[in-house]
C-alpha cells in the first residue's frame, strides 16, 4: 500500500473551493538505467479522480513525465465548509490509493 | 491563425470509439465509478499533432486565451511547476505537453462544469523546450506555447 496523500481543501472568497493534492509516488519513467545498465521499468500514476459529495470535480491522466510525488492543484464551485473531498489514484502496476479531506 | 490538419478518417474513427464507450456506460455495461481508460496512444505520441490526433481532434488552433504559468528558466528539470488557465468558454479538458520530452504528453485533466478551467502540477523536462497547453473547448482544440529553459535535465538522473 502506498503512502497517504496530503490533501488540502480550502473555501475561498466567491464560493470557490481550492484543492491542493500531494501524492506520494516514485513516478519512474521507464527511461532511466540502473547501475548495471538495465532499464528501470516504468512505474507511474495513470489515473486520478477527485470527487466532492460523490460528484466528480476533476479527472486526470498522468504520464511518466509528471514529477515524482505529483502535485495537483485545482478549484471548483459549490463546496461548503465541512464537506468531504476525496481523491483516488491508480498506477500502471495496479496499485491504488484513496484519501479524503474536509473543506476548511 | 494556424491550422494543423489531421486525416478526417482518423478523426471519424476515434469519434466512433468514443460513441461506443459512451453507449456502454449509459447501458450500464461499464461501471461509471471505474477509472477512465488511460489513453496510451496519446501518452505514446511524440508531437503536438499526434497527441491532438490521439485525443480525437482533427486540428488545433493557436489561442491567446490560454495562460501558461511556468518559470522562464528552470534550475531543476525534474520538478518544473506548470499551471494552466483557460479563458475559453466551455473548456472541457486541459493537457500539458513538453515538446522535447521522449513522449510529449505529460498530463491531461478533464474539467467538469463547476470546476475552474485552471489546473497546476509539476512535470519533468529532459532539456530546454517549448511547453504546450492544449485546451479542448466546444469540441475544438486550442494551443498556447511557452518556452522553458532547463539548466539541469530531469531525465537520466
Amount of beta strand of chain A = over 45%
How many β-strands of chain B, per DSSP?
9
- Can you tell me the CATH topology of chain A? Immunoglobulin-like
What is the typical, i.e. mean, pLDDT of chain A? 94
Low-confidence stretches of chain A: none
Largest sheet of chain A: 4 strands, antiparallel
Give the end-to-end Cα distance of chain A, rounded to a whole number of Å.
28 Å
User: How far from one another are the termini of chain B?
Assistant: 39 Å
Based on CA inertia axes, which overall geometry of chain A fits?
elongated
Q: Which structural class fits the helix and strand makeup of chain B?
A: alpha+beta
Structural class of chain A: mainly beta
Largest interface (CB within 8 Å) is between: A-B, 34 and 38 residues
Query: What is the string of helix and strand elements of chain A?
Result: EEEEEEE
- Summed up, the domain count of chain B is 1
Proportion of helical residues of chain B: 10-25%
CATH class assignment of chain A: Mainly Beta
Can you tag this structure with a few keywords?
heterodimer, A: 104 residues, mainly beta, Immunoglobulin-like, 4-stranded antiparallel sheet, 50% strand, elongated, B: 157 residues, 6-stranded mixed sheet, 3-stranded antiparallel sheet, 3 helices, 9 strands
Amino acid at each position: 500500500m502506498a503512502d497517504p496523500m496530503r490533501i488540502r481543501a480550502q473555501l475561498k472568497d466567491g464560493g470557490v473551493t481550492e484543492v491542493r493534492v500531494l501524492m506520494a509516488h516514485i513516478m519512474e519513467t521507464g527511461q532511466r538505467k540502473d547501475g548495471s545498465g538495465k532499464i528501470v521499468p516504468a512505474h507511474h500514476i495513470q489515473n486520478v479522480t477527485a470527487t466532492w459529495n460523490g460528484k466528480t470535480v476533476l479527472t486526470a491522466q498522468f504520464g511518466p513525465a509528471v514529477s515524482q510525488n505529483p502535485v495537483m492543484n485545482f478549484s471548483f464551485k459549490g463546496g461548503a465548509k465541512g464537506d468531504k473531498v476525496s481523491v483516488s489514484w491508480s498506477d500502471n502496476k495496479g496499485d491504488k490509493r484513496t484519501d479524503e479531506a474536509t473543506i476548511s | 491563425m494556424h491550422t494543423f490538419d489531421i486525416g478526417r478518417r482518423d478523426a471519424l474513427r476515434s469519434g466512433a470509439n468514443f460513441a461506443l464507450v459512451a453507449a456502454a456506460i449509459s447501458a450500464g455495461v461499464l461501471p461509471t465509478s471505474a477509472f477512465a481508460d488511460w489513453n496510451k496512444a496519446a501518452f505514446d505520441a511524440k508531437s503536438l499533432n499526434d497527441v491532438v490526433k490521439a485525443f480525437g481532434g482533427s486540428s488545433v488552433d493557436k489561442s491567446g486565451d490560454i495562460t501558461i504559468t511556468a518559470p522562464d528558466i528552470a534550475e531543476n528539470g525534474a520538478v518544473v511547476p506548470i499551471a494552466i488557465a483557460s479563458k475559453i468558454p466551455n473548456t472541457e479538458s486541459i493537457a500539458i505537453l513538453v515538446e522535447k520530452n521522449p513522449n510529449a504528453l505529460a498530463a491531461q485533466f478533464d474539467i467538469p462544469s463547476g470546476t475552474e478551467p485552471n489546473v497546476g502540477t509539476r512535470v519533468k523536462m529532459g532539456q530546454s523546450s517549448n511547453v504546450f497547453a492544449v485546451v479542448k473547448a466546444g469540441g475544438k482544440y486550442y494551443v498556447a506555447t511557452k518556452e522553458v529553459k532547463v539548466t539541469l535535465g530531469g531525465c537520466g538522473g
